[in-house]
Amino acid sequence: MNKKLLLPAFAAxxxxxxxxxxxxxQTGDGLFIDVPDVPMLEELGExxxxxxxxxxxxxxxxxxxxxxxxxxxxxxxxRVAGTSDEMVTLMRTGEYDLVSASGDASLRLxxxxxxxxxxxxxxxxxxxxxxxxxxxxxxxTINGNSYGVPIGRGANILQYNSEVIPEAPESWDVVWExxxxxxxxxxxxxxxIYIADAAVYLMATQPELxxxxxxALDQTQLDAAIALxxxxxxxVSEYWAxxxxxxxxxxxxxxxxxxxxxxxxxxxxDDKFQGTLPVEGSTGWSDAxxxxxxxxxPNCAYLWMDYTSAPDVNGAIAMNFGMAPAxxxxxxxxxxxAAHCEEFxxxxxxxxDQVWYWTTPIEQCVDGRTDVQCTNFQQWTQxxxxxxx
Length: 389
Prior knowledge:
This protein has 14 helices and 13 strands. The chain has helices at 11-14, 62-72, 84-91, 103-111, 173-176, 195-205, 219-233, 243-251, 262-267, 298-307, 311-321, 335-343, 349-352, 377-384, and strands at 50-55, 75-80, 98-102, 141-142, 145-146, 149-161, 186-189, 236-240, 257-261, 273-276, 282-291, 324-325, 355-357. The strands form 2 sheets. Strands 1, 2, 3, 6, 7, 8, 9, 10, 11, 12 and 13 form an 11-stranded mixed sheet that branches. It has a two-stranded antiparallel ribbon with strand order 4-5. Helix 3 (84-91) packs parallel to helix 4.
């Protein structure tokens, strides 16, 4: 899920105007801002015969797409995207009906009028079994309207080589502090959104900065995060955006500690690589289906969102991609499902309460402050360019 840079894609998110009060990303109350008035589908009609989907690799596979076609008559046309920026660009062509958006793309799509509010009454499988921590989040619930149907979530963990680091690190200090004993063997994520990881660490270590949400940084707070990132740059061995490169770095011994996803740790194929969620908490990601405001096949799109929200299909996607499923009922369908849910903390809200899901930074502070202007993602992008020199 590497996030490469396309400055124009952030323009809409950068110009959002606050009309109410924003709320903490962890409360489930959503966000209140001015967005284009896009109509919501009121009732389902006849299936159009096909649906065009932009998705992460592993989200739309023949195993369940073919069954969906048999049940609904909607042929699934998939376009795999490698970055959130690519997804935003493709959705803005108007040629796709659905996208599996992460939180760092959602607000851009909503603010640009590229996606429509979702009528959850038309999605029967979106019910009590959808985990609470993926409902009503600030990145896809705007002015009381849901724009996303949850698919799955994960944390950005601290991965380490247990042969070099026998005890699980309790803190992120091993990758941030200049005197880290692992200097020169540290890997970091290569994207502007990684600024939030620095902010999470600063929340715990420099409380005087007043950071209460890592995606709501005023200029002073952003400057502090960039200073920390520049300090880290001196001890980092490499940055990763390509998951394969991250796995190779650990497996080849270049890296012994750094930011990772649980699935990447597993894919190294060696038990010596372990992962932990440090005491400061972490950033993370949550993916959701979003429907295009220009969809030619809204009925097929809704049928797909409902179909993939069912326990078995949602679980299949989660296991295929390597994440916690959105539908907790999947965890009770088999021993294998239960083991997967335990490994990925699917129903452990205490775990995910420590995770700050990726959210596009906007000028209106999503931590609720109204007396300052926060920095937007375009500013983060420009600041990120100064980190690596």
